[in-house]
Amino acid sequence: MAERLLVTALKGGRNTKILTLNGKRITKMPSTLEKLPNLKTLDLQNNSISKVCPELRTLTQLTLLNLGNNHLQEVPEEIKYLTSLKNLHLFGNRICRIAPGVLNGLHRLIMLNLNDNRLTSLPQEIGRLRSLTYLSLNRNNLTVIPKELCSLEHLSELHLNYNQIVYIPEEIKFLKNLQQLFLVRNNIEELPEEICHLGKLRVLDIAGNVIQIFPAGFQNLRLREFYCEGNPLFLKRPFLAVQPKDLWTLREIAARFVLSLLEENDPLIMDAIESYPEAKDKLSKAKKCSICRKPFLSEWLECVHFVAPSKNWKISRNLKLIPVQTSVCSYQCFDQRDPNVFGIAQE
């Protein structure tokens, strides 16, 4: 059957645009593909191909290549010559590496599916896929999201379910067009504040991680769907605790004094701070108290603000309140807090 389909395609020669050899028990990619220079779609999924033929590189008009559910062990170098490629399916293989430079020529690629493989990392070249809008890497062995991935400014869907990712880089803020983010069943302990900058994010699924609290401003995301079941979220179970007196270091007292003058645009301090770049850098990391809105540097109370999820969100079934990070500069401010703000107890 496969031979008959291939013969028919070859008879068409330059007029053949589509070749489908799905599930034909093929173990070797046919080298005669070079006789189909105008091929647009090549579907070879559900076979037993372990290596692509060198002639694949001649298919420069190819826009869709499906090699899903085969026996490939790497994303082969030949693919980099497919400069017209828009959709690439490599799911369900045994891929543990991406050949060096293979992503450099895929400037038109908009969809990449590498689900169900054995990848432990992604190359820096992932950032070269400038047209990519959909990337799926479910069920691999990834531990980090490379910063370079966050330069894909057109990316709208990112699927990273069932990996071993520990944290999300702050550079995620550069994914300005990201609409759907899936991080189910990883080892993520916290979300960066920068995730709150994703103004187009509509679907976020972080079920099955180890997150306890969300970054300040998280409740302002314009989500439509939010799922977080299976995380050990902080619960609203208040109890009374002794509050010690505020006792700041001289460094903190000085920092707060300087920070207050900088907020007032004091000309003397504004000029003087330029002569101390190290101090300027440290002061640039200052935060503001959620109660009095005054700046502080390193002495503060980490608190949790329990907020109700937006009525516009489709949410996890039992989610009633979202624990959101907030910082208070002193016990004096802590006593004036909102009734839904609590200190975080160490169990």
TrEMBL record:
Locate the Disease resistance R13L4/SHOC-2-like LRR domain: which residues? Answer: 147-222
Q: Which UniProt keywords apply?
A: Leucine-rich repeat, Repeat
Could you tell me the superkingdom of the organism this chain comes from?
A: Eukaryota
InterPro entries recorded: Leu-rich_rpt, Leu-rich_rpt_typical-subtyp, LRR-SigEffector_domain, LRR_dom_sf, LRR_R13L4/SHOC2-like
Q: Does the keyword Repeat apply?
A: yes
Question: So which residues are the signal peptide here?
Answer: none
What is the protein's name according to its record? Leucine-rich repeat-containing protein 69 isoform X1
Native organism is Mus caroli
